[in-house]
Amino acid sequence: MSVMKLPKIAVALVMSALVLCLAACSTPGADKGKPAGSDADIEAFIAEEPKNAEEATDLYNRLMQKENDIFSSDKELWEKVFAEANKDSSMIGNGSNYGEFLLSTVESAKDKFSTDEFNVLKTGAEQIKKIEDKLTVLKKKFPDCVKAPESGDSVDASSAGMTGDTSKSTKFPSFKGKDLDGNDVSSDELFSKSKVTVMNFWFTSCKPCVEELGELEALHKKLAEKGGQVVGVNSFTLDGNQGEISDAKDVLSKKGITYKNVWFKTDGDAGKLVSGLFSFPTTYVVDSKGNIVGEPIVGTITSAAQREALDKLIDQAIANSAK
Q1: Domain ranges across the chain
Q2: pLDDT tens-digit profile of 238-279?
Q3: Cα–Cα distances in Å, from 132 out to 95, 307, 308?
Q4: Distances (CA, A) of 219 to 222, 226, 307, 314, 316
Q5: pLDDT digits over 161-211, tens only?
Q6: Is 3.40.30.10 the CATH number for 157-321?
Q7: Nearest residue to 230 via CA among 206, 254, 194
Q8: Cα–Cα distances in angstroms (integers) from residue 304 to residues 155, 171, 216, 301, in the given order
Q9: Cβ(277)–Cβ(8) under 8 Å?
Q10: Are 103 and 125 in contact (CB under 8 A)?
């Protein structure tokens, strides 16, 4: 992995969990170097059998919070884990349990940790595997349980990255690069030919990033009818890393994604923008003049609140492009 990936992956993992479970901060009181919850605590959660969608949603969010607690209890250790991850062990959206991906990564990096550190990480990964198994069951039985609670129960917009005046516009850094099939692309051409461009930044082993790809594909088809588009930027593929490009194409193919994904140089202004992102996925909205509209959407767009914020930015971008 390149040096630029380490801080982004580690922070993205925690921040994505924060957004998914609608929590503004991690649970206080977790002891450094110890698992965030006992197996008994996890088993108690897993043993619950919700009777309706409302109970399922509550359990889903509590399980996501528990998963977040595991990551945030010792961020430095998990940073090291993801620094050692490689494309051969990446979770690529093929339906595999995220806990299995973590266990595999921890095991492959075993010699990088003390015995105590390895045990903490292995325990955490095993707990996450159990949580993910339960989440899968919940989503199959109660598909609506992954939706955000109604307003009043969700996190404040400012902590979810949805602040800012939607009329605010600054230039998106210009770039020249290629799509994942090797065709030349440029920011000027991408933006000028589209009334609105939704730029989604993701990486291959980011579970929330991969999970929202289907929703982004649906959005792309909807925007196409209005003269708009979705464009993806996989941070691992920057500078044209062929191995990472192959992995990204594999993920996109399995998810049925048709919208363009591009890469560019890390030493340019657009590359510097990516290196400055501290959570993934992050989504920018750009009008036909190349202006960023409002603030970026931090976290997945799958919740009602996030999607509402995104739709407002899209409408504003289309209005800007008509001027």
Answers
A1: 23-146, 157-321
A2: 999 999 999 999 999 999 999 999 999 999 999 988 877 767
A3: 11, 24, 27
A4: 5, 11, 10, 11, 16
A5: 333 343 445 899 999 999 999 999 999 999 999 999 999 999 887 888 888
A6: yes
A7: 194
A8: 12, 28, 14, 8
A9: yes
A10: yes
